[in-house]
Specification:
By secondary structure, the chain is an alpha+beta fold. 40% of the residues lie in helices and 27% in strands. A six-stranded mixed sheet has the order 4-5-3-2-16-15. A six-stranded mixed sheet has the order 6-7-8-9-14-10.
Length: 362
């Protein structure tokens, strides 16, 4: 009798987490500006995957066929699982000798660590020796001449003669936005129109030998979680109460929900611009959203993720406050560009790690 109680209780818990898992799958399909609650399960999708693996092991060790429930769910949703925990199932595409392999670095530099990490971040960029560099939260300070526009741009001009800058915000003492630097000529520059006070997306048409590629550099809506918010969350371990948990959860959901809604609209604007491109596209930057999200799926439709096609394992690019999430992405045209390599440079000079990718126009 006791064993039956354990079995059926475990089965009910298993089915409950299967339901959460399915809702997590729906998070990439249901527009987050219409039904935002699914988006939260997309954020925790890696944990939901691990829970399903846990149930597979649990039922196998108990010699029960019930392991097929979670195993079946994982197999049926393998593309979604593979976007989070990537397996090296894809072979690198053949390299055409007559065309160059392009290295692209995308990096949220957090205004060079508040100016303190400028030299360290520049060394990473220079050592990567990428052909194209896409930076988010790119900027400089004017107060006390600590980090001026001249200092920043003169350092880049040594290697990158072509650039596309867009300062979304300029104040009396600082400027920030996005920047694309290239060793190859940039023949056209545009900003993508969408609503945001602090974030921006641009595209640059880059001529690579006989080919032209449209490079999209994106910084989508931030979640705006402050250090104070994180400290309040961590304080629960020392002073837990249901009232305090509810208050903190409500504040987190308000900020995250607002950002999810804005990113959904931004993603559709970016996708529309991608679809209008007469050239092969490379779409990169800080999406502020994970692979199992509506914003990512909207932008990535009909594109290859360089990480998923060439990388392996759990790759996280955001590394602050104990949150290890994958929110910086590189996507390329399926038909026209061959993804070759993907790597994360784990240097903690910003709250994001730089992502280095290699690809080739077919």
């Amino acid at each position: 009798m006791f064993r039956k109680i354990i079995k059926y209780t475990s089965l009910l818990i298993n089915l409950f987490f299967v339901l959460l898992y399915v809702c997590g799958l729906l998070s990439s399909v249901i527009p987050s500006d219409k039904f935002v609650w699914f988006a939260y399960l997309g954020l925790f999708f890696p944990l939901l995957i691990l829970v399903q693996f846990g149930f597979v092991i649990f039922w196998i060790t108990r010699r029960k066929w019930l392991f097929l429930i979670s195993l079946g769910v994982l197999l049926l949703s393998f593309p979604a699982v593979n976007r989070v925990f990537t397996l090296p199932l894809h072979k690198n595409h053949l390299v055409a000798e007559e065309k160059p392999i392009i290295k692209l670095l995308t990096y949220n530099v957090a205004i060079f660590g508040g100016e303190k990490e400028f030299d360290n971040i520049m060394k990473i960029i220079e050592n990567a020796d990428a052909d194209i560099v896409c930076l988010q939260e790119f900027g400089f300070y004017t107060r006390h001449n600590l980090l001026t526009e001249y200092q920043v741009l003169s350092r880049f001009s040594k290697t990158y003669p072509y650039r596309h800058l867009w300062y979304k915000n300029q104040r009396n003492n600082m400027s920030w936005g996005v920047a694309t630097f290239s060793k190859y000529p940039i023949i056209h520059k545009e900003k993508i129109e969408y609503s945001s006070d602090y974030n921006v997306s641009i595209y640059s048409d880059v001529v690579i030998k006989l080919d032209t590629v449209r490079i999209f550099n994106n910084h989508l809506e931030s979640n705006k979680l402050t250090m104070g918010d994180v400290k309040h969350y961590k304080s629960l371990s020392d002073d837990f109460s249901h009232e305090k948990l509810w208050r903190i959860t409500e504040k987190f959901s308000y900020k995250l929900g607002a950002a999810y809604r804005v990113r959904a609209k931004q993603a559709r604007a970016i996708k529309s611009s991608i679809d209008e491109s007469p050239y092969p596209v490379v779409v990169c930057g800080d999406f502020n959203d994970v692979p199992q999200s509506y914003a990512y799926r909207t932008i990535a439709k009909n594109l290859n993720d360089v990480k998923t096609t060439t990388g392996w394992g759990y790759n996280y690019t955001f590394n602050a406050n104990g949150m290890l999430v994958d929110i910086d992405h590189v996507l390329v045209s399926k038909q026209d560009i061959a993804p070759l390599r993907y790597s994360i440079i784990r240097k903690p000079f910003s709250d994001h790690y730089p992502v280095l990718s290699e690809w080739q126009v077919k």
